[in-house]
C-alpha cells in the first residue's frame, strides 16, 4: 500500500511540474527573447537577493514539519498553524529589510529598485506553502498540483498579456509575486476544505520547531550564499552591468529544467523514508539507497545530453543574442546531479539526528564557493562561475561527508545508489518505487 501511495503521490507531483514546465518553456523563451540579456539579468540579479529572504522565511522546514506530523499526529493543526504564523511574521519583516539591502549595495538605481519592490511583494505570502508539507504527509499531493497549476497558468497568462502590450521589465518582475500571492490564497482555500484539525498556535510547538530548525535555517542561508552569490559577483566583478547575469541565467534555467523530477522524488520520499526509519533499519537503508540511485543517474543522464547539444539548445531556446552562454551551460549542467544530493543529505541529517553538521557543511560549502568565485569569475567570466558551482556541490555533498565519521553513512548510501545496490534498473524507470 505504501509503495502504491508513494508512486501515486510522486506521479501527481511530477504531472504538475511537467505542466508548469511546458508553460514555463514556451512563455519563458518568448519572454527572454523580448527582454534581452540586460533586462532578464536585472530580474535574476534582484531574485538573488530575494532567494536569501526566501530561505530565511522557509525556516528549513522541509524535513522538520513532516517529522513533526509523523511524531505528533494529534497536533497537526497546531503544528501547521504555528509554522505558518512564524513564517508570515518573518515575511513581513523581510520586505523592508530586503529593500534596504538592495539600496545599500546598488544605490538608487531606479530600474533595480523598482524591480526589487515588485518582487518583494511575494515575501509575506511564502508562508502558505507550509500547507504543501501537510498534503505531502497525507500523500494527497494531487490537490496541491491542481492549485499550483492554476496559479502558474494565471501568471503565464499575465506574462503573455505583457508581451502583447510590450510592457517594461518592471511589469514582468511583478509576475512572480502574483504567482505566490494567488498560490497562498489557494492553499488556504483547499486546506479549509480538507482540514482534519483547525489551525492553531502553540508557543511550545514554536519553541520545538525553532530548536529543530535553527541549524537548517542557517544551512539554507549558506546554501543560498553559495548558489546565488555568483549572480551578484558576476555583476560587480565583471562590467557592473546585468548583461552577463542574463547569459548566466539562461544557462542555469536549462540546467534546472528537469528539476521537477528530483524535487518530486524528494518530496514524496520523505514521509516514506521517515516511517521506514521507525519500522526497520534495513528497509530504511534500502529506501535511502534507492532515493540516491534515482537522483544521481537521472540527472547524470540529463547532464550528458545537455552538454553534448548545448549549442543547439541555446540557439533554439534563446537565439543568437544568448550564444555566449553555450560553454557556461556545458560546464554548469553537471552540478545538477550533485546538487540534489544536498536535499537528500539534509533529510539524512534529520533521520540520523546529526543536525549539528548541517550548518557546518553549509558554511564550509558557502566559504568554498565564494573563495572560488573570487578567483575564477575574474579569470573566466561566467564560465568560472559555472565551474565553481560544480566544484562546490561535489565538495559539499560528496567530499565533506567522507571527512567525518558520523556522516560517512551517507557516503555509503551514495555508493550504494551509484552501484545500484538495493535497486534495479526497473526501479529507476519507475521513478523509485520503494520495495517492501
Concise structural overview:
The protein has one domain. The chain is built from 18 helices and no strands.
Protein described:
The chain is mostly helical and about 425 residues long. It has one domain. About 85% of the residues lie in helices and about 0% in strands. The protein is built from 18 helices and no strands. It has helices spanning about 1-60, 60-70, 75-105, 110-120, 130-135, 140-165, 170-195, 205-235, 245-255, 260-280, 280-310, 310-320, 325-330, 335-350, 355-380, 380-400, 410-420, 425-430. Helix 10 (about 260-280) runs parallel beside helix 14 (about 335-350). It starts with a helix and ends in a 7-residue tail after the last helix. The model is unreliable at about 425-435 (pLDDT under 50).
Beta-strand content: under 5%
* Rg, Cα atoms, Å: 21 Å
How far apart the termini lie comes to: 9 Å
Mean pLDDT: 85
Integer count of domains: 1
What is the overall number of helices? Answer: 18
pLDDT below 50 for ≥5 consecutive residues: which ranges?
427-436
Considering DSSP H and I runs of 4 or more, what fraction of the residues is helical? over 70%
Structural class: mainly alpha
Tally the beta strands: 0
The backbone outline, from C-alpha atoms, is: globular
Query: What is the H-and-E element order?
Result: HHHHHHHHHHHHHHHHHH
Biggest beta sheet attributes? none
Can you lay out the helices and strands and say which pair or pack?
Elements: H1 2-58, H2 61-71, H3 76-106, H4 110-120, H5 130-137, H6 141-165, H7 169-194, H8 203-237, H9 243-255, H10 260-279, H11 281-308, H12 310-318, H13 326-332, H14 335-351, H15 356-380, H16 382-402, H17 408-418, H18 425-429
Helix pairs in contact: 1-3, 1-4, 1-6, 1-8, 1-9, 1-10, 2-3, 2-5, 2-8, 2-10, 3-4, 3-8, 4-7, 6-7, 8-9, 8-15, 8-16, 9-13, 10-11, 10-14, 11-14, 11-17, 13-16, 14-16, 15-16
